[in-house]
């Protein structure tokens, strides 16, 4: 018994005598390892005319080896594993960013040539070659997307409120959830075909209207609005609902004044992201709206131009000279990307502005 007690005391004393700080690599070690890996890769592969992609792959592998060995020798195996995983995650992030940066750079590089005042103040009416602009397409995109938002947001909001507040666990709620999941995965062209078939029965085949495109986009927006709103409503604590019920507040008023106001930040963000998602759809608008060279502000009469369809036709049917149409197509794509980025920025600002204040 005495021997066991003395051994435990010795182990405790040995643990206490351990230094509070362990040996660590300098903070610049990961960057130094990466620099060494890049230099070695360039020295080995670049003289032979190897592509930059092969140099990047070799540099990543050498960085993993160098940082892993250096950390293992200096900091131990546990810290070395941590640094290896951190390096792998960082490399995966950089690989994922390559296509995004490449697309943005390509669009900006090719679209900046026609980024002038004429592009935003002129349409393509009676213009075949050089010149012209996309004013009619910009207004068409704004009008159709706005109508789609007006149609889809109330439907999506009320559906999500029913799923969370009224029909939770019921057969109807489960069926609605299943259908929403199915609608989330349908190709966008299916929505356009469905709307075109519906209006062909009513107005005859070949009908193309702005309202048809708005309805097709609304069909694509509804699942996103439902899902985002549903998740935000589920995050509202039940204590808030019960406190309102205890004060005698009706359920509908509790939903409107307490639940929705608490989750308005996330709901607004989800709606804005849904708008950004459908703003660049091309396939359903090709079928339902078509294209026109002049401005049309009436979605219930005649064809309308939209930026995605405008870019498609300018690229596939550029006219003479072909370079002018190609430049207009790239600039339209650049404007569309800028609009989507602006909508995402608005979503961030809405989320921050309407977020519930937690401070006193």
TrEMBL record:
It is a multi-pass membrane protein. GO terms for biological process: phosphate ion transmembrane transport. Keywords: Cell membrane, Membrane, Phosphate transport, Transmembrane, Transmembrane helix, Transport. InterPro entries: MetI-like (IPR000515), MetI-like_sf (IPR035906), Phosphate_PstA (IPR005672), Phosphate_transprt_permease (IPR051408). SUPFAM superfamilies: MetI-like. It is found in: Cell membrane. The chain crosses the membrane at residues 28-48, 54-73, 85-108, 138-164, 176-203, 209-226, 258-279, 329-350. Coiled coil: none annotated. Its main location: membrane. One of its GO terms (cellular component) is plasma membrane. Residues 138-347 form the ABC transmembrane type-1 domain. It comes from the Bacteria. GO terms for molecular function: phosphate transmembrane transporter activity. It holds the Pfam family BPD_transp_1. Part of the binding-protein-dependent transport system for phosphate; probably responsible for the translocation of the substrate across the membrane. Belongs to the binding-protein-dependent transport system permease family. CysTW subfamily. This is Phosphate transport system permease protein PstA.
